[in-house]
Amino acid sequence: MSNFFLRLEAIPGRDILRCSHEAINLANKLELTVTFDFNGVRCMACPGDNPESLAKETLTIMTRDYPHNIARGRP
Question: How far is CA 68 from the centre of its chain?
Answer without folding.
Answer: 14
